Amino acid sequence: MDIERYECIVGRILDYLSRSGIELTPQVVREALKVVEDCLDRGGDDVLQRAFDRLPRHFDLPVVGIPRVAPPVHRSSIRYRRGEPS
Question: Taking the model in full, what pTM does it have?
Answer without folding.
Answer: 0.69
